[in-house]
Amino acid sequence: MESVSVSRTVDAEPETVREAMADVQQFMASAGFDEVTVDGDDMTIVNGFGIAAIELDLTLVDRDDAELAYEQDDGIFEEMWTTYEVTAEDGGTRVTATTEFQLDVAVVGAVLDATVIQRQRRRELNAQYDWLERVVAE
């Protein structure tokens, strides 16, 4: 399994951060995906990469150690899940997102590798944190 983790301290109380993240549609869209559809616990995200587009079907799941968590049901990964942990910290709230994934080599082949996925995922997570900072400041 490959992993990418990004943390940021947001200048807000944990409950304020949790409330913002509870708007899953907006929170997921803030990552910069081309399309985000949320229907209950089911989500679909679409993201273009040059001439190709990647579509992932995801399901929100309950995990004791995470404020928000989802896993892939269908897509380019053999396995993929993401967790967001929210913890109080002096002066704000620490949010840590971790995505673990195993590429499905038969699907991905030479087009994408783990390094490309990790780089893209860091951009997406940082965009979500930028959105969180804007929303909790309002």
UniProtKB/TrEMBL annotation:
InterPro entries: Polyketide_cyclase/dehydratase, START-like_dom_sf. Pfam families: Polyketide_cyc2 (PF10604). Gene3D superfamilies: 3.30.530.20. This is Polyketide cyclase / dehydrase and lipid transport. It comes from Halorientalis persicus. The lineage of its organism: Archaea, Methanobacteriati, Methanobacteriota, Stenosarchaea group, Halobacteria.
